[in-house]
Structure formats: structure tokens, C-alpha cells
Amino acid sequence: MGKQRTWKHWDDTQRTQLRALAGKLSTEEIAMTMGRSMQSVRMEAEKLGLSLRYQKSDRTNKRWSKQEESFLELKAGEMPAKLIAKHLHRSIDSVYLRASKLNLSLRIESDNWPVNNLANLLGVHRRTAWHWVESKKLKSDQVKKRYRYVITREYFREFYNQYRDVLPSLKNINPDALEFVLNG
To answer: Does 91 lie in the same domain as 41?
Structure first.
């Protein structure tokens, strides 16, 4: 037979400690601090009506400084909102709200495309685009240590100039899309 579990009951001191830590530390950190399992912490918090929602940032409702607004204005449309938020130690929601108040667009006009997006844009089958990448005809960069590859405008320009007269699939590309990919 397996090892039998012994249940530790919660006493008033531990409940007081849980009330003090709830929302200030993650559930995992509370469990480690109190020598309890995460499940035990969650169940007791639920019994006590406590929220274990943890906010890493202590910047809630803090006013935006001129420097932060300047950074947002400078990077909006160039840097992803997630990175802007990380740089400013703000939530992504906060960055979107402030950008909206400043009439800024956080949309990035990209010079890089994932392989499937490039295929859609050019009007070629995605397998055709993947073949270009896998055969090393079209250079690509791997992103975030995953199996995701992006093609830069420069990589596509080199590929197009070298293979435009050789590959039949390049002759059927939508001219407007081709112009956009090559020149922006």
C-alpha cells in the first residue's frame, strides 16, 4: 500500500497569515512560505472568501510621467505593446489605455512576416513558401526558440532578385502585394 497522507488543519494564526499574503504573493509563493500545498492554499482562501489574484506591479493607479509618455510616443508602432509595458513596468492594459488617450496606434507596420503570412500576402500556397525556406533559397530567422520562422523584407528582396526568372511560382504573384513586400 502507498503512503497515507496526513492532513494539517488550518489554525487561526495560519488563516491570519493567509489573509495578509493573499494578493501580495503568488499562490506558489504563499504555499512555499506557509509549508502548504498550492491546492490547500487555494481551498482555504476560497473558504475564507479571499482572492488569490496576484498583481506583480505595485504601480496600480500611478500617474504617467512625461518621460513615460514620451517613451510611449516614441515607441508606439515600432515596439510591441508587451515590450513597452515591460520596459515601463506597467500592465499591457495600462499601455493600451494611455496610447488611446494620446491618440497613438500601437499597431506595428511590419517588415517581417511569418512564413504562412508571407505566403498569404503573396498569394502562393503556404507549402510553396515553406519549400523556399526549407531548401535554403529564402533566408529566414527563427523566433523565440520555437519552430516559427520570419522572413524580413531584405531576405525576400534577395530571394526575389535571385530566383524571379527561375521559379515559376514567383511569376504568378500579385504585383501589388509584391510591391508592398519589396518596398513597403
So the answer is: no
Distance CA(95)–CA(88), nearest Å, equals 9
Q: How many other β-carbons are positioned within 10 Å of the β-carbon of residue 129?
A: 25
Domain hosting 99: range is 57-109
CA 104 from centre of chain: 20
CA angle 100, 61, 98 (to 5 degrees): 10
For residue 2, is it within any domain?
no
Is the residue at 119 inside a domain?
yes
More confident residue, 126 or 44: 44
Distance CA 118, CA 129 (A): 8
Q: DSSP label at 154?
A: H
Q: How many domains does the chain have?
A: 3
Report field, pTM of the whole predicted structure over 0.70: no
4 is written with which cell numbers?
497515507
Q: C-alpha 8: how far from its chain's center?
A: 40
Look at residue 3 and tell me if it is in a domain. no
Per-residue pLDDT tens digits for 57-92: 554 568 899 999 998 888 787 677 887 888 888 888
According to DSSP, residue 51 is labeled: -
Both 116 and 156 in one domain: the answer is yes
The rounded distance, in Å, linking the Cα atoms of 35 and 29 is 10
